Structures are given as structure tokens and as C-alpha cells.
């Protein structure tokens, strides 16, 4: 659910950014995905999945999980991703020369330019993402609450996510410090993946 981070960590090419945003929506093996998507887009999807594995096993991510109420920890993979996108907004200038607003406008233009790559699951969401400005909404508490509501609406099983904003507010500074510790490592891992010549062909679970 950390759309902003995956887009920021992707390479600057259209295919890399689209692939990295599709990682939560496209399932299957690389070979199956290549039947209907360009190979560089599939490379972005694979990169997204590798970043997710890196994140889930990072010591700082595990510490952030402990800040959630016990009944919320089973949703940590979703919730902390969303919280970290919030902090990425607020610390964007520490990592990138252009401002976040310009980057988001560029991403929305990319979605229009490459609609043929967006697929049956993500493609129908794009108009709503743009109209409601999902990528900017992470920046505010009210926007975070709307994001959590969107996620919770997918299944009754996810309803406890609605209360996780309280966890963030109670432990805001600690979550922020965990993000600041984690994100440079995520950027380094993304750079390593982008430089790997075999990124497109590596298998994944």
C-alpha cells in the first residue's frame, strides 16, 4: 500500500515506475506476466516484490510493528507501509531534489501516458486515484484516515485497521525515527536492484 515509496524507489523510466506500482496488483510468475506486459514492466513488478521482502525482514520495520497495539500487529505489513508513506511526504526533500508535488503530478501524467500497461486491476482505479489525489493524501492525518478507510472497506476482516491511526498518534515520534532509520536502507537496496543485470529474470516465491 506504500504507493509513493515504490514509485520513488523505482528507476526514472516509465516501465520501472509502472511495474513498481503494479506490484500489489499483478500476480503470477515472471514468465506468465511477460505474456501480456513488456519485460521492463515485469522487471519493475519483480523489484516491487523484492523491496517488499526487504522491508518485511528489516529490523527497523520489526521495531515499528511493536508500536502497534497487539490486536493490530497482524496488519503491520499494510499499516506501516501507509505510515511510512506519510513520513516520506514530510521528509521528501531529504532524499530527492524535486518537490513531492511535482513528482506526483509527473506520476499522474505517467498513468495517462501508459494506460495500456496498467492492467485490469490497477487501471480502473486510476481515475479515482487522480480525482481523490491519493498520493498526496498520505501527508495529512485526515488523508491517512481516508486511506485506512479505503483499505478496510475491502473486507470485514480488515476493519480493525480503522483504529490504527491512534497507534500512530500515540507513538508518532518513534514511528518517524524508525522511518528515518529505514528509508536510507530501502534506497540503497533499490539502487542495488536497479543495477543488477539479472533483475528481470530472477525467480521469486
Task: Explain the overall architecture.
This protein is mainly α. The protein has one domain. It has 13 helices and no strands. 64% of the residues lie in helices and 0% in strands. The two termini are 20 Å apart. Helix 4 crosses helix 13 and helix 5 (59-65) runs antiparallel to helix 13 (172-195).
β-sheet strand percentage: under 5%
Overall form: globular
Weakly predicted, low-confidence segments: 199-205
> What is Rg?
16 Å
Number of domain units: 1
Number of DSSP E strands: 0
Distance between the termini: 20 Å
- Strand/helix succession: HHHHHHHHHHHHH
Number of helices: 13
Supply the helix-strand structural class. mainly alpha
Q: How helix-rich are the residues, as a percent range? A: 55-70%
Largest sheet: none
The average pLDDT value, as a whole number, equals: 93
Please render the helix and strand layout as text.
Layout: H1 3-9, H2 14-22, H3 30-33, H4 39-56, H5 59-65, H6 76-90, H7 100-113, H8 119-122, H9 126-132, H10 134-137, H11 141-152, H12 164-170, H13 172-195
Quick take:
This protein has 205 residues and is mainly α.
Keyphrases for this structure?
205 residues; mainly alpha; disordered C terminus
